[in-house]
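Entry type: protein chain
Record version: 2
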Amino acid sequence: MTDPNPKPAEDEAPLPEGASPEEMMAAEIRQLKDQLLRALAEAENTRRRAQKEREDTSKYAVANFAKEMLAVADNFSRAVEAIPAEARKSEPTKNLIAGIEATERQLQVTLERFGIKKLTPLGEVFDPNFHRVMLEMEDTDQPPGTIVQVLQPGYVIHDRLLREALVAVAKGAAPSPKVDKSA
């Protein structure tokens, strides 16, 4: 049984008291169209959110594994840096260094294939979104806040920070002592 005087929707103008059945049907049709359009928009928004979540999940699924692999990459660099200069001259040591460096390069290429890029911000201006200051250095050649040493490289995965770079920045120049010229 239908109500002869249906109540108007909240966003719809009320029908006059003596509205004809055609006017009442037209009002109901408008109301149903509005509900349908809202339901379709909500379904489309839900579909887009789910698609974005799927993309993010596939994009960043390797993040935890990648963080663990960064320690391996760091250790390759440390291994090469730890070899004394005089030991680098012997043929067996040269071959060992070449092997470690080749493995390190291969690891970096593999990381990059999965969207993981190394940050080496030497000479750049400090950015707290990507760098962590570990120390300040007196350096008259660089403006204050410029990165003068990278203690540990940072990494990003696609557009997200995976690990911040640990850096040393140039400190503002020490004020020069005032000399009394009247003496």
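Comment: Residues 28 and 34 are 10 Å apart (CA to CA).
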